[in-house]
Write a structure and sequence with these properties.
The chain is of the alpha/beta class. Helix content is 40%, strand content 18%.
Length: 371
């Protein structure tokens, strides 16, 4: 299956798009070689760091790889569409139809342009997205409470310290009462990313900065990262909760570990433990990196769940496939058994596939309303 997924784009791009172009043979060979090199991006990433999730190349090279990888993807789809369209015309007219050089150039240009736009969208510092959520049982003392969510920053060579610093600056001026981070802080070990994550220590809000791990934290020295993030000022909610008070009113912020944790020898998500001992009748906001268990959270009386992980599906159309792997949840707001689930598109993106088209990144500011 992997051979088919990897080989089909190469066959389409090299044999069905590149080779028919009226170019010198030597130039075609060079271009075909570059296509193969770009298609092997994740292999080179693994060689660079030992992990496919952390390409340790100069940032410009990571950007070029992502553009080339995206261009191959789009060109494959466009060339297949062009082939099918040509075949249909030939069948209807019952005449041989040849794809012109101009048509091949056009689809190549469109593919390159879409990839460039997708990478540019992925790299930007996200805007603040405002969402109003009415919480049943929320005390009037918390009416207007502002909660800001960051998620899936994937701090790496692609999203380095200066990007993280810009995200921190934009987040700190949101007038948030609390900041939460719902996992996937980074891609790389503490040694690789120490300088890049350092700006996160400047995040501040009156009620603190709370966080949970995502699946990527387990790929890189999980225990070291939990300690280091705590030292940076994050209150890590590992199957635990915190209670926020306003006079006699209370709001519970609970957090669970990631579903992938047991596969890495760590404690998996335990919602019962996270909620144990919480104040009676206090609404619960749950932080869970992956949205797949939202129905179970709703059944346990959680009022609101904040998740990430899906990156919003990254590309319109692809989001439908991503939703299928996440219990149907991929982007935005859902009503799940009376609970509000919000799945953020993410603040950053995994550097192995950094393209966004129609699914923009975000820093999400929630204003809670008593209801």
């Amino acid at each position: 299956m992997r051979l088919v997924v990897f080989g089909l784009p190469l066959l389409v791009v090299i044999l069905n798009w590149l080779w028919p172009l009226p170019l010198p043979l030597g130039l075609k060979v060079v271009a075909a070689t570059l296509v193969v090199v770009a298609a092997l991006y994740h292999y080179w990433s693994r060689l660079s760091s030992g992990s496919v999730f952390a390409p340790e190349f100069p940032r410009l090279l990571v950007i070029v790889f992502n553009w080339a990888f995206g261009a191959i993807l789009f060109l494959t789809l466009l060339q297949i569409a062009l082939d099918i369209g040509t075949l249909l015309v030939a069948l209807v007219t019952w005449q041989p139809v040849h794809i012109s050089v101009g048509a091949r150039v056009v689809v190549g240009g469109i593919a390159g342009g879409l990839a460039a736009i997708g990478v540019a969208n992925a790299l930007r510092v996200p805007p603040v997205r405002d969402v109003i959520v009415t919480i049943p049982g929320l005390s009037p003392a918390f009416d207007g409470y502002k909660l800001v969510q960051l998620t899936d920053m994937h701090i790496s060579r692609l999203f380095p310290a200066r990007w993280a610093r810009a995200v921190v600056e934009r987040t700190n001026v949101t007038d948030a009462d609390m900041i939460v981070v719902t996992g996937d802080f980074l891609d790389g070990s503490v040694a690789m990313r120490r300088a890049d994550v350092a700006p996160l220590a400047q995040l501040h809000a009156p009620d603190g900065v709370l966080a949970i791990p995502g699946n990527h934290e387990y790929f890189f020295d999980y225990a070291d990262w939990m300690q280091h993030l705590s030292e940076l000022g994050f209150h890590m909610l590992l199957n635990r909760h915190a209670v926020i008070t306003r006079g006699g009113a209370r709001l519970v912020i609970a957090g669970v570990t990631d579903r992938s944790a047991p596969a890495h020898g760590q404690a998996g998500p335990d919602l019962a433990a996270a909620l144990a001992g919480r104040p009676a009748n206090a609404p619960v906001v749950l932080l869970d990196h992956q949205p797949g268990n939202a129905r179970e959270a709703a059944a346990c009386g959680v009022a609101m769940q904040l998740s990430g992980h899906t990156h919003g599906g990254m590309i319109v159309g692809l989001d439908r496939l991503v939703a299928r792997g996440n219990s149907g949840f991929v982007s935005g707001r859902y009503d799940v058994g009376g609970m509000v689930l919000y799945v953020s598109n993410g603040t950053g993106l995994w550097p192995g596939f950094a393209l966004r088209l129609g699914r923009p990144s975000e820093i999400t500011r929630f204003k809670l309303r008593a209801g």
